[in-house]
Amino acid sequence: MIIAGYSSYPWAPDWKKFREIADAVPGKAILFADIAHCAGLAIAGVYPSPIGYADVITFTTHKTICGPRGAVILTTDEDKANIIDTTVFPGEQGGPHANKFAAISVAFEIAQRRIAKCFATNDKENSEIKISADQIFVNIQPLSGSIANNSVYEAFV
Fold first, then answer.
1. Assigned domain for 153 exists
2. HSE toward the beta carbon, residue 6, CA cutoff 13 A
3. CA 55, CA 36: separation in Å to the nearest integer?
4. Which of 15, 67, 82, 129 could bond 61 through an S-S bridge, CB–CB 3.0 to 4.6 Å?
5. What region holds the Serine hydroxymethyltransferase-like domain (predicted)?
């Protein structure tokens, strides 16, 4: 299994390259993509989506999708889906929060609308704003040199 996805990664992953690597593994490795921190950006089309490349995709509903706290596991493979279903519930998790179902559905509906694309685009663009040293009296530089999503890690020099 190749696990791709990042909590602290300001660049865009190359999902196609990950897929090529997974396919090159003898027996074909499962490609697992975690997009918890950038799912809303991917849905809005301002960040690469692993759909069509990853065998399994996970993300949260409360970060860039702006819904209530929750998580999603996606796959189009029925065998993998059955394994995930029987392992996660009731094995690892129980007692789903039924009171959140409607709110998560609304968050997904909103995530598909133009307003969500505006939010995601602004979120990404705000991460790229450069603050000059004379404005704040401190020289701030991105540690990564560039930014492809809403993750910003700065070095105070």
1. no
2. 13
3. 16
4. 67
5. 1-128
Tokens of 95: 């007692």
Domains held by the chain: number = 1
pLDDT, tens digit, 9 for 90 and up, residues 49-94: 999 999 999 999 998 888 999 999 999 999 999 999 988 877 677 7
Eight-state DSSP code of residue 92: I
CATH number (domain holding residue 122):
3.40.640.10
Residue 142 lies in a domain: no
CA distance linking residue 31 with residue 35, whole number of Å? 13
pLDDT, tens only, 13-44: 999 999 999 999 999 999 999 999 889 888 88
| Structure-token pair, residue 79 | 């065998």
- Residue 140 belongs to some domain of the structure: no
Strands (E), 27-156: 31-34, 56-60, 71-74, 140-142, 154-156
Longest CA pairwise span in the chain (Å): 58
CA atoms within 13 A on the CB side of 22: 19
Residue 11 lies in a domain: yes
Whether 154 and 140 have beta carbons less than 8 Å apart is answered as yes
Which residues form the domain of 16? 2-128
